[in-house]
Structure to design on (425 residues):
């Protein structure tokens, strides 16, 4: 059943709970990756990348803002509080996006893997049964193409370069792959999310579509395909996070904790 | 929201909106950029639905303020509400021909009509087609940086989305 606005889910507690949990997955993924992107400001390999990563960070945080806003409409509170006031244990992001930036190769591989995943997720969300989410997904998809194109270009360039660049990419791929399992997890409400069409595809289908798009990129970069991601032992979508997230939240929420009423 | 709006008021509101410029591109109005989706009025209460060019555009608060302030000056308007909506999505083909001309005049290449991120536009200075992408990202989320091989100028352009 198509749901046009927030008010219509208030008397459907199961649908609402699944939707809220899933919106936190979307919002937390985007906010944390956006913050990691912003950490490159002034440190990126060249000035073009400073510009690119600032712009990408702004996009990702903007997308997070939209998802937190949708949560606000469902009675979850103010977007700023949701972004900065929630502890690690209730965060729903995949563990991959909470990791520190590492070197440039890690940054590129992590972002590429996430951007392809996001492209697949947004494509499915364009026909979400929750109309406000579907509309947001359609709009965000058009912006995300630029991130994906940028990461693809870097990934191919680093892979084809050989030498140290290639070695670093190979190390980055190994590190990213070890963290991939819960990216495809849909958390505690998977069955309902799919059955209600909030996200109209299963995690297996998400992973299958992701893999179909990743393989040609590895081929273009002349890198060996590392195989399908292994299921995660720990699941960020269930609030199981690493110490990296605590450290990240500590930094990210410093201003908020000093003055929760601050506007920026 | 009712759609009942007198023709005189509607004309006056659109004319006023034509005077509200993009905060970073002072030659182009929000109407020419295709950012105004709908204008409705009920009594003296006006609601404007606007489409953000990019979801994370930091200029939205400024646009809201500018639109509200300008429309408040229109005869018969008592209250203005600006709402940003995502349906329909803003796309770069909403920019009017007049908007495209003014963008180029400002030195910003209008987005190529082709729907692809990787196609460099014509140089806004010399009109040459032999241009290259310098950076898909620019000083704002909606811009990219290009280079003209004919007149050897770097230039900015609006991204097609």
């Amino acid at each position: 059943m198509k749901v046009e606005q927030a008010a219509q889910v208030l008397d459907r507690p199961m649908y609402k709970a699944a939707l809220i949990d899933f919106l936190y997955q979307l919002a937390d993924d985007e906010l944390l990756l956006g913050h990691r992107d912003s950490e490159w400001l002034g440190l990126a390999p060249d000035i073009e990348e400073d510009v690119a990563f600032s712009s990408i960070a702004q996009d990702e945080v903007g997308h997070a803002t939209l998802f937190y806003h949708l949560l606000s409409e469902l009675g979850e509170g103010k977007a700023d509080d949701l972004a900065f006031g929630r502890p690690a244990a209730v965060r729903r992001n995949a563990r991959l996006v909470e990791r520190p930036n590492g070197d440039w190769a890690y940054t590129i591989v992590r972002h590429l893997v996430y951007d392809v995943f996001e492209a697949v997720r947004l494509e499915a969300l364009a026909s979400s049964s929750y109309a406000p989410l579907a509309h947001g997904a359609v709009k965000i998809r058009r912006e995300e193409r630029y991130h994906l194109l940028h990461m693809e270009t870097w990934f191919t360039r680093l892979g084809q370069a050989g030498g140290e660049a290639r070695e670093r990419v190979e190390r980055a791929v190994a590190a990213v792959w070890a963290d991939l399992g819960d990216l495809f997890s849909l958390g505690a409400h998977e069955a309902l999310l799919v059955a209600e069409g909030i996200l109209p595809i299963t995690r297996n289908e998400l992973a299958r579509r992701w893999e179909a798009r990743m393989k040609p990129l590895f081929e273009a970069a002349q890198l060996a395909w590392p195989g399908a991601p292994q299921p995660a032992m720990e699941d960020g979508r269930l609030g199981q996070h690493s110490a990296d997230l605590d450290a990240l939240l500590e930094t990210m929420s410093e201003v908020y904790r000093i003055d929760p009423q601050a506007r920026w | 929201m009712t759609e009942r709006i007198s023709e005189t008021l509607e004309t006056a509101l659109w004319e006023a909106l034509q005077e509200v410029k993009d905060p970073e591109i002072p030659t182009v109005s929000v109407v020419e950029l295709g950012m105004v989706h709908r204008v409705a009025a009920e009594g003296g209460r006006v609601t404007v639905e606007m489409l953000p060019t990019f979801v994370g555009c930091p200029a939205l608060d400024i646009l809201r303020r500018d639109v509200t302030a300008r429309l408040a000056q229109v005869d018969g308007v008592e209250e203005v509400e600006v709402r940003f909506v995502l349906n329909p999505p803003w796309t770069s083909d909403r920019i009017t021909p007049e908007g495209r001309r003014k963008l180029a005049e400002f030195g910003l290449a209008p987005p190529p009509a082709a729907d692809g991120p990787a196609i460099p536009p014509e140089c806004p200075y010399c009109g040459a087609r032999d241009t290259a992408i310098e950076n898909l990202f620019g000083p704002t989320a909606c811009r990219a940086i290009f280079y003209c091989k004919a007149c050897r100028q770097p230039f900015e352009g609006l991204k097609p989305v």
In short: The beta strands of chain B are 21-22, 25-29, 36-42, 45-50, 79-84, 108-109, 131-135, 143-148, 154-158. The radius of gyration of chain B is 17 Å. The longest strand of chain B covers residues 36-42.
